[in-house]
């Protein structure tokens, strides 16, 4: 028996698909060396890895101890996730970094497309909250806004 897909998860799947397409378009505009060049704090490569890592942690609840681009590496909760080598670094070829982002995005969308709305219940990791978790529903909205925020950051840094 298959689980019915929820209206909220279906909506979120479409929103993540759309936001990730726009984020990818902003990343694609960083041609050649610009993809690996830090301006205004970070390179487009870092932004891609950062967004992929946060989606992997907060949406897919992947606790593989190899996070290095969360931006909270000095936080005790992030340090407690472990310190295995990162699967990708900012200096890796653009194609590898983009493939990692695309793969994580596809996993997020696939999970949402098959989930019913009750899959959004419960808590997920949060470095910033006092208890170390936040409601999954709130985290989903935050991650959508987070991707949009970094798309804006990319647009600014590529103009500088």
TrEMBL record:
It comes from the Bacteria. It holds the Pfam family DinB_2. Residues 15-154 form the DinB-like domain. It comes from Deinococcus aquaticus. This is DinB family protein. Gene3D superfamilies: dinb family like domain.
């Amino acid at each position: 028996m298959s689980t019915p897909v929820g209206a909220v998860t279906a909506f979120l799947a479409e929103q993540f698909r759309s936001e990730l397409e726009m984020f990818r378009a902003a990343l694609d505009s960083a041609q050649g060396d610009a993809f690996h060049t830090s301006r205004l704090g970070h390179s487009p490569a870092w932004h891609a890895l950062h967004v992929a890592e946060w989606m992997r942690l907060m949406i897919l609840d992947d606790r593989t101890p190899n996070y290095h681009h969360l931006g909270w590496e000095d936080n005790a909760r992030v340090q407690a996730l472990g310190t295995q080598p990162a699967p990708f670094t900012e200096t890796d070829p653009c194609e590898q970094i983009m493939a990692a982002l695309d793969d994580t995005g596809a996993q997020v969308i696939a999970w949402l497309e098959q989930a019913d709305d009750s899959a959004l219940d419960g808590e997920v990791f949060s470095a910033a909250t006092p208890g170390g978790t936040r409601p999954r529903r709130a985290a989903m909205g935050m991650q959508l806004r987070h991707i949009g925020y970094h798309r804006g950051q990319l647009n600014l840094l590529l103009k500088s």
